[in-house]
Specification:
heterodimer, A: mainly alpha, MetI-like fold, 79% helix, disordered N terminus, B: alpha/beta, D-Maltodextrin-Binding Protein, domain 2
Chain lengths: 294, 353
């Protein structure tokens, strides 16, 4: 403050230049802002109004949800599912991302496309493929029986297992890519320096490489977690009735029971959960530095 | 001051309500679009197009647009936004009552719809049934070869003599009817659905739950699960099993204990083509139109006189054929709408446990 106060006022030319830049920035931001305002914020506000429009009173939908045992357990299940999927994805993604940074040339292309190709294929197609693979007389069971791992077909489909497999498969690239990006940014000379100072490779990994790539890990995990919270198709097709997720419950409010205030209220609770996670994550890492900016 | 209609308009603009963002609110000028009929897609839509829509369109020189799939939420959204895009809709019978209570349907105009020849349970104040199907006991023919087929819901519940995994529908209805039949309740005593009967049905379903490996939610699932051997027996929609049998899948079904239901036509409130919609409904239940359902053979006629034109082979899987009506339960959509809304939470709890 003291410095600013004592600084000489900028010359007029610099001031007008700064003003022009501000106008330019505003002009560049305007389309996106308008788009978001019109197609996201405004409908979101309307959705909030809808959630308060139950015929039984403004807070009736929220009260009904809070009192519903089904709703509570579905939300807890959804949260748990998202956490477990996030942990699995992150653990699988880290070595995969590391491998991507090590291979070169032809094998790099192969590895990269192994990550990207599934990313480009419709989620519906991938989910159906898992149904074919995991069914009672499907290839996975046939293989297990052929090698004698099991004598009768295992129940691989329509349970917790298949939901996790399907979701991890769909969401894995979302974890790999930010982690890979953060690994690329690590200055290799730091690792050499650590090595030169006598650290074991384990110490170098734990005290240099891992902390430096943590922003990518957090960003990838946040990505996966947020997407997993709203998952619909995969648990709907691969899960059993005990795998009802929040999104499926909202769908039944909208399409079957036609209780839209309840659907809107449930959506808002889900949204609040997402915002809470974003806030929490942003305390540990500037997500923007990995996902958006720079 | 909250204007409900505006709220709904914007809510409809959100993808969450099943309406594409691009579909905001178009004005429903009758001049802008042809008469539009919406149904479920698949073999049902094909059947209705061939038997009802195309012939009507030709005879009356009216263009009819056939679209699918139907969504109840979309019906509600378009009616409340006063932007009706579907003039005639094929729904599950419960929506006659759900839609009536939500105030989104036109009452059927029986001065235009000539329905004196139709059995009373196929015509209601807000909807007319135009074709029939059933929720039947279907099975894998390799698991149960000829002579050893399950004969009804009692056998479905009998895991000792009829081993193997089962599949039931993911909601209470159909299962309620099947469970009560398995528990020995007479077909004509299934309704009214009292609390005692619902509890009895749920207890019966709980008893079988360990053997039910899949609770299906979309019609195509049951024949798929049966033909791959994932399950040996399932409650399934007759039309889907018919299709699978024709494709040569190792599945079959029995109409004994079948839960017979109808596909109902309803008219969204505020359609600019109200009269035309009534005329199409009237046409769909004529002898001529109903008879066309017989050779198509996926969904049966509602008219007994049309069903009577079926060959013995065709009649075997026809809901309204006299041989089958004797052993069926007629699904009561009004009762179902009542017990489903009352017991849905309990059912979901049961499913989650």
């Amino acid at each position: 403050m003291i410095l600013a106060g004592t600084a000489s006022p900028p010359p007029a030319a610099a001031r007008s230049q700064r003003a022009a830049r501000a106008v330019m920035t505003a002009a560049l931001l305007l389309p996106a802002t308008l788009f978001l305002a019109g197609w996201f914020l405004w409908p979101l506000g309307q959705l909030l109004v809808l959630s308060l429009s139950s015929p039984e009173g403004p807070t009736a939908a929220y009260r009904a949800l809070a009192e519903s045992e089904v709703f509570r357990s579905v939300f807890v299940n959804t949260l748990l599912l998202a956490v477990v999927v996030t942990v699995i994805c992150t653990l699988l993604a880290y070595p995969a991302a590391w491998l991507l940074t090590r291979v070169r040339g032809f094998w790099f292309s192969v590895a990269l496309y192994c990550v990207l190709l599934p990313f480009w294929i419709s989620i519906l197609v991938r989910t159906f493929s898992w149904m074919l693979l995991l069914e009672r007389n499907g290839p996975v069971n046939n293989l297990l029986m052929a090698v004698g791992a099991t004598h009768q077909p295992l129940r691989l489909l329509f349970n917790q297992f298949s939901v996790h497999v399907g979701m991890v498969h769909v969401l894995l690239p979302y974890a790999i890519l930010p982690i890979y990006a953060s690994m690329l940014k690590v200055d290799r000379r730091l690792l050499l320096a650590s090595d030169g100072l006598g650290a074991s490779s384990r110490t170098t990994f734990l005290r240099v490489f891992l902390p430096l790539t943590m922003p990518g890990v957090m960003a990838g995990a946040a990505f996966v977690f947020l997407l997993a919270l709203g998952f619909f198709i995969t648990p709907a097709l691969l899960g059993g009735p005990q795998n009802l997720t929040a999104a499926m419950l909202i769908d039944s409010f909208v399409n079957e029971r036609l209780v839209w205030p309840m659907a809107a209220a449930a959506s808002f609770i889900l949204l609040l959960m997402v915002l809470a996670v974003l806030l929490l994550t942003s305390r540990f890492v500037a997500i923007g530095s990995v996902m958006v900016m720079k | 001051m909250i204007h409900r209609r505006n709220v709904l308009k914007s809510a409809a603009a959100l993808g969450i309500l099943g309406v594409a963002p691009g579909g905001l609110v178009r004005s429903a000028g009758a001049q802008n679009r042809p008469f539009t009929f919406c149904s479920w897609g698949g073999s049902l839509s094909e059947t209705e197009k061939k038997a009802f829509m195309d012939p009507f369109s030709e005879a009356n020189a009216v263009e009819i647009l056939n679209v699918s799939p139907i969504s109840y939420a979309k019906v509600k959204a378009m009616v409340e936004a006063k932007a009706v895009e579907w003039d005639l809709v094929d729904v599950g019978g419960q929506f006659i009552y759900q839609g009536r209570d939500a105030g989104v349907l036109e009452p059927i105009d029986y001065s235009i719809v000539k329905a004196d020849h139709l059995e009373p349970y196929w015509k209601t104040e807000y909807g007319v049934y135009t074709s029939t199907g059933a929720s039947v006991l279907a099975f894998n023919t390799q698991a149960f070869p000829e002579g050893k087929e399950p004969q009804g819901w009692a056998d479905f519940w009998n895991v000792k003599d009829f081993p193997g995994a089962r599949s039931l529908y993911g909601r209470l209805y159909y299962n309620y009817e099947a469970a009560l039949r398995a528990a020995g309740v007479a077909a004509n005593e299934i309704y009214p659905a009292t609390d005692e009967k619902v509890k009895m049905a749920m207890a019966k379903i709980a008893e079988l739950k360990p053997n039910i490996t899949v609770w299906w939610t979309s019609g195509a699932q049951a024949p798929q699960l049966l033909s791959t051997g994932e399950v040996t027996m399932a409650l399934a929609w007759s039309g889907r099993i018919n299709d699978a049998m024709r494709e040569g899948s190792p599945v079959s079904m029995t109409f004994r204990d079948a839960i017979a239901w109808g596909n109902a036509f309803v008219v969204p409130k505020g359609t600019p083509y109200r009269e035309l919609a009534m005329q199409v409904i009237g046409y769909a239940i004529t002898q001529e139109a109903q008879e066309r359902l017989v050779p198509i053979g996926t969904y049966g006629p509602v008219l007994g006189t049309a069903a009577a034109t079926a060959s013995p082979e065709q009649a075997k899987f026809m809901v309204t054929h006299p041989d089958n009506t004797k052993v069926e339960v007629i699904f009561n959509d009004e009762e179902v709408a009542k017990y489903w809304s009352k017991w849905e939470e309990e059912w979901q709890k049961f499913m989650l446990s």
